[in-house]
Design a protein that fits this description.
The complex is a heterodimer. By secondary structure, chain A is α+β, with helices and mostly antiparallel strands. Helices cover 34% and strands 16% of the residues of chain A. Chain A has a 5-stranded antiparallel sheet. The two termini of chain A are 34 Å apart. Chain B has a two-stranded parallel ribbon. Chain B has a two-stranded parallel sheet with strand order 2-3. The chains are: A alpha+beta, B mainly alpha.
Amino acid sequence: MNGVFDLGGTDGFGAVGPTPSEPVFHEEWERIVFGLQLGCFAGGWFNIDSFRHGIELMDPVHYLTSSYYEHWLATFERHGVAKGHIDADELDRRTQEYLDDPEKSLPVHEPNPALIEFVDAVVAGGSPATRPTDEPKRFEVGDVVRMRSFAPHGHTRLARYVRGKAGTVVAYRGSFVYPDHSGNELGESPQHLYTVQFDGAELWGELHAESNTSSTFDAWDPYIDAIEHREGATA
Amino acid sequence: MSRTGRTSEEIAARVKALESMMIEQGLVTTEMIDHYAEIYENEVGPQLGARVVAKAWVDPEFKARLLEDAPAACGELGIGGMQGEHMVVLEATPEVHHAIVCTLCSCYPWPVLGPPPNWYKDPQYRSRMIREPRKLLAEEFGYVIDETREIRVWDSSSELRYWVLPERPSGTDGWDEQQLAALVSRDSMIGVGSVQVTP
């Protein structure tokens, strides 16, 4: 979808204000949100791509004016309610209870060693996104390719600033879960993944790009339209 | 203040409400949430990436393996896992400076850097780093890169997790891995800072 989250090259946001170091969590609730994500994964509320899409579907003003972990909360709520795991009215009712009495206890519960083991397994092993495919590879390193230009309403990683642009394939990465299907809960549909390098001038125009800068973008096969020319061939 | 008008207290209450429902469903426990957060508060952070960099600086064969297959090479040091399943290390050279960004969300190599700082996740860095890296690095990070050196910014649009192997600074001949690792900052592995020998 075309949304405000797709920020590459947007002007006007102002100063970054970097910090040399930061606490991992700035508020206690951020720490809890961090943990709830694993619970959502364990409960099958979303995959990593549909998790991201739930954030993209936030109200754009809210997205730009809320913090990272509030984005997480938004996608938990969206998926939890949409899939029947969470009753929205009950969530509102309990929210008011905890607002009226922040010290009110959580439900009494026992430790669960299986959940600790789940955390340790996920942290140590992660969740690889590589998947085999029988589809042929269309591109080779060195190919000059043009990106497709499409604007689906659902999840895609095809950022606007690379659509229709020409770049050079600099790496083949293997075949991976395709987010345009996975993020819209249409299955994993593995696709070959390439890294494409673009000159700044191609993306922003000769007059407006910084000199001697380039950027790279990871593109699944369907993001790439066609070969403009192969390495060594005459353009 | 967000458009929803939620204060920090209201967000905290909403999070606690959701937590209470997920506890009842058996999806989380308070113990599990603490355990998970403590891993990133106490164990996984930029000091792990710094160890990898220092080893690469003193061990050319390890460096070659790191550039060829970063998850496997980091795994030799017991480093890896979630959000680092498909890491790719970019070697800074006198000709090319590398830096990372995620324009679409906030992808970042957790096993070597920990979860990202807020500025990395905010719209300012995500919008500008891809468009005007030289200006941004000079003005906001105090890191001036000569125009003769290419800046290549890697947008983490897939599950690949890029990070930077910075150049080893001069004046460190004979230093051991521990001394070298102490020099390596988070920023140098994002590509928004250099490695400096403090006089």
